[in-house]
């Protein structure tokens, strides 16, 4: 019998890539999504890639009644991977209550319903944002967490705490928080990828939109940081590599190979890449020069952070396989594909 995994936010950027990898590894996938930042048609794209169309239930996880109804209907779920959340750092500063309500209420409703329905295995979408600016680089999972610099970041810290406390209070519950560094790129089929609403906040979609001519220029937020070229440093990983880590994590829980009831893993490449290096990588793979301008620092930006992924390498048996250039190439292929489709429409 195939195991069934509930993927919340499964039509979103990382959720859709993870749904593909789960199906390709022989799992059944059922998705809950409110389509706030994604489209129902993503399940057809998942079907185009895998041959299997996941079940999609469209509702908001903040609606406790609907969450309970869902679990009454789907009684054979083995584990949950929880992506559904708001994720725009800047927006979270302007709409903190929306972020706390959406990201935390959905988490509480989900954990509550899981407990009531005897579902114990839970994988959570966390972020390297919980580290703030670490004192030591590369950063390991035991680094002290810094006060969050945005309500979004705070929802990830509080989210992790809620999950940890749940595993302490109920020894049956097993959970893994995956702290992502910076996911980029798209599926090699160019059928699924990142689709930011409005002006992108993140670097790579801004680069690809600028290359396509949708934006006049890229603004680089600061060149006076204490880094070799003065721009900020991040750890960019291919979204398909990231998606595969979720499959490994969920299998670890289902098969009971976890060391503790609550575990945390960094998911990154281990390489720090500056904003200027990221642009160079894009230019190499696309053959297009990016028009950019240096502007002031973006409030809340971390100067430099990259992962020590050795715990995930050793314990999950997972590591990133794609290079930065390969990831950039898929981001560019995806951008071209979605724009061409829009022209045809
Ligand atoms: C941020 C969050 C991260 C979150 C992610 C999701 C923090 C510290 N990090 O990542 O937790 O998961 O958003 O959206 O809160 N840049 C430019 N010009 C641009 C855009 C970005 O120079 O137009 C630079 C930024 O200054 C940064 C780098 O590119 O140095 C990456 O930025 P971005 O893609 O927004 O990701 P983070 O801020 O690292």
Notes on the structure:
The protein is α/β, with parallel strands linked by helices and 345 residues long. 41% of the residues lie in helices and 17% in strands. It has helices at residues 13-24, 42-50, 64-73, 89-94, 96-116, 151-169, 203-212, 239-254, 275-286, 310-316, 324-344, and strands spanning 4-8, 28-33, 55-58, 77-82, 121-127, 174-180, 182-184, 218-221, 233-234, 236-238, 262-267, 273-274, 292-295. A seven-stranded parallel beta sheet has the order 3-2-1-4-5-6-11, with helices on both faces. The protein has a two-stranded parallel ribbon with strand order 7-10. Helix 1 packs parallel to helix 2 (42-50) and helix 1 (13-24) crosses helix 8 (239-254). The longest helix has 21 residues, at 96-116. The mean pLDDT is 97. Residues 87, 89, 127, 129, 150, 153, 182, 201-203, 206, 218-221, 232, 234, 275, 298, 301-302 line the site of uridine-diphosphate-N-acetylglucosamine.
Report the count of strand segments. 13
Radius of gyration of CA atoms, rounded to a whole number: 19 Å
Q: What spatial order of strands do you see in the largest sheet?
A: 3-2-1-4-5-6-11
Hetero groups in this structure are:
uridine-diphosphate-N-acetylglucosamine
How many helical elements?
A: 11
Coarse shape = globular
Give the strand content: 15-25%
Question: What structural category characterises the helix and strand content?
Answer: alpha/beta
Overall mean confidence score, pLDDT: 97
What share of the residues lie within helices?
40-55%
The separation of the N and C termini measures 41 Å
Order of helices and strands: EHEHEHEHHEHEEHEEEHEEHEHH
Biggest β-sheet strands, sense, barrel: 7 strands, parallel
Kindly report the oligomeric state of this protein. Answer: single chain
The poorly predicted ranges are: none
């Amino acid at each position: 019998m195939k195991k069934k995994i509930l993927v919340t936010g499964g039509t979103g950027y990382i959720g859709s890539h993870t749904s593909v990898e789960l199906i390709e590894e022989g799992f059944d996938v059922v998705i809950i999504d409110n389509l706030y930042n994604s489209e129902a048609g993503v399940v057809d794209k998942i079907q185009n890639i895998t041959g299997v169309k996941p079940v999609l239930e469209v509702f908001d996880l903040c609606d406790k009644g609907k969450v309970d109804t869902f679990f009454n209907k789907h009684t054979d779920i083995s584990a949950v991977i929880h992506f559904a959340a708001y994720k725009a750092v800047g927006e979270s500063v302007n709409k903190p209550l929306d972020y706390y309500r959406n990201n935390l209420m959905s988490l509480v409703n989900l954990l509550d319903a899981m407990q009531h329905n005897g579902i114990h295995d839970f994988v959570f979408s966390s972020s390297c944002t919980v580290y703030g600016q670490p004192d030591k680089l590369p950063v390991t999972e035991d680094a002290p967490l810094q006060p969050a610099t945005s309500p979004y970041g705070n929802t990830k810290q509080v989210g992790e705490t809620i999950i940890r406390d749940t595993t302490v209070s109920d020894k049956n519950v097993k959970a893994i928080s995956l702290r992502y560094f910076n996911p980029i790129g798209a599926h090699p089929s160019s059928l699924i990828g990142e689709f930011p609403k409005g002006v992108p906040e993140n670097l790579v979609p801004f680069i690809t939109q600028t290359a396509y001519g949708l934006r006049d220029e890229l603004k680089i937020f600061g060149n006076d940081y204490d880094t070799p070229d003065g721009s900020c440093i991040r750890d960019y990983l291919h979204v398909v590599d990231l998606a595969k880590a979720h499959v490994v994590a969920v299998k670890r829980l289902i098969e009971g190979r976890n060391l503790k009831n609550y575990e945390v893993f960094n998911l990154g490449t281990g390489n720090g890449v500056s904003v200027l290096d990221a642009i160079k990588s894009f230019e190499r793979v696309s053959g297009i020069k990016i028009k950019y301008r240096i502007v002031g620092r973006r409030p809340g930006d971390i100067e430099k952070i990259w992962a020590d992924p050795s715990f995930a390498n050793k314990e999950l048996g997972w590591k990133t396989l794609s290079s930065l250039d390969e990831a950039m190439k898929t981001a560019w292929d995806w951008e071209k594909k979605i724009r061409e489709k829009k022209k045809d429409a």
